[in-house]
Recover the amino acids of this structure.
């Protein structure tokens, strides 16, 4: 193993990166570096397994290698678990272990194969007369020669063949969502879903993504999918079909002082939201553009002195009229459907005292509603056409520029 690593490293030293001038040389070096990384990962995995069998973490007062890797080397719980799990699995898979040590298999691929090495799987295979050595060799070959997705297919096929009539798992037990809220109000998360549940979620997200592809959209696919997820939430909230929360339909809440709402400045950190986020006054005005506004008068010690009824900024009748007239988002190049759109006050209702009227209303999808509240501008011409301007007052044309 050490001889292989030294040979690989010597190959790298023989051709410094700065001296590579052709595509072939750069690609060859990339492949070599992946092989080096795989070989190092293999040595690390074997070492971690050795430390585990020796109960080495006890020396530092820890009970497991997972906790030692997390505490002493600052690895994530996921990565520490993968290292330990791969080490255990490779003891049952010598052909895969050899390919891993030779740099031909990645640590990620070993994780995909690891379920095959589980005690109950190995026992079932032996009971059915399966040649485990042949399975091991086949998995090593697939991992070394075929695309990553093929390996997962082979592993799942093997597991399914071992127990073709086994109990179907409960899909609700295979679903989980982790959400983390950060100090600036942004949210990150991840989810794990069963195959059918994942297919449903992907189908809905893809439908939103494909139905809203405005001209000139240069965002990455992850950005577009993130936007699609929020659009999904918008449609769900607007439909009124979501479960009731403590006698109230779920909705987005923003609490802001009237002075901040009426101040033309951006006003960062001016409004508090229902789940703990803090947003700017400008963002709160954007939310209020097509929402309900409630007045609550507070005393000097925080006591509620008076509260008024919620007022719908855009009443249902006016919204229907705007939808019939505009048909879709009016921002140049966008045709997002009406049920994805807010009714925007062309002349802002808080700062500019714009009227809540058909003439002062425009349908805008969430993305372009945000754009218009950050410097872009839409205007309806006397002939009914909508035109869009950038913050620098240049007009956005779609297709052939209009003659003006």
């Amino acid at each position: 193993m050490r001889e292989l690593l030294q040979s690989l490293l010597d190959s790298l030293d023989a051709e410094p990166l700065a001296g590579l001038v052709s595509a072939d040389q750069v690609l060859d070096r990339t492949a070599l570096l992946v092989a080096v990384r795989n070989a190092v990962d293999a040595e690390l995995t074997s070492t971690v397994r050795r430390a585990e069998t020796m109960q080495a973490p006890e020396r530092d007062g820890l009970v497991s290698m997972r906790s030692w890797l997390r505490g002493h080397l600052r690895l994530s719980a996921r990565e520490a678990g993968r290292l330990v799990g791969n080490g255990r699995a490779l003891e049952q898979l010598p052909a895969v272990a050899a390919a891993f040590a030779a740099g031909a298999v990645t640590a990620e691929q070993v994780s995909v194969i690891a379920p095959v090495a589980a005690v109950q799987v190995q026992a079932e295979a032996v009971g059915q007369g399966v040649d485990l050595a042949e399975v091991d060799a086949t998995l090593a070959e697939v991992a070394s020669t075929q695309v990553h997705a093929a390996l997962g297919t082979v592993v799942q096929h093997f597991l399914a063949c071992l127990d073709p009539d086994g109990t179907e798992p409960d899909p609700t037990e295979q679903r989980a969502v982790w959400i983390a809220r950060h100090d600036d109000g942004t949210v990150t998360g991840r989810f794990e879903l069963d195959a059918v549940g994942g297919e449903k979620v992907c189908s809905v997200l893809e439908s939103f993504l494909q139905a809203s592809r405005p001209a000139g959209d240069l965002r990455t696919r992850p950005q577009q999918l993130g936007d699609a997820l929020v659009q999904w939430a918008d449609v769900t909230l607007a439909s009124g079909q979501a479960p009731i929360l403590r006698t109230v339909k779920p909705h987005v809440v923003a609490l802001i002082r009237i002075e901040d709402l009426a101040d033309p400045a951006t006003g960062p950190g001016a409004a508090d939201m229902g789940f703990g986020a803090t947003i700017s006054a400008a963002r709160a005005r954007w939310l209020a553009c097509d929402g309900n506004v409630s007045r609550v008068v507070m005393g000097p010690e925080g006591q509620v002195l008076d509260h008024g009824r919620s007022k719908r900024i855009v009443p249902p009748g006016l919204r229907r009229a705007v939808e019939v007239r505009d048909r879709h988002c009016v921002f140049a190049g966008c045709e997002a459907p009406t049920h994805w759109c807010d009714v925007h006050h062309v002349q802002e209702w808080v700062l500019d005292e714009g009227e809540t009227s058909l003439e002062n209303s425009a349908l805008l999808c969430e993305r372009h509603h945000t754009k218009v509240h950050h410097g872009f501008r839409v205007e309806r011409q006397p002939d009914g056409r909508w035109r869009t301007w950038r913050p620098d007052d240049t007009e956005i044309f779609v297709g052939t520029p209009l003659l003006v």
Remarks:
- Residues 23-53 form the longest helix (31 residues).
- The chain has a mean pLDDT of 82.
- The chain is about 45% helix and 15% strand.
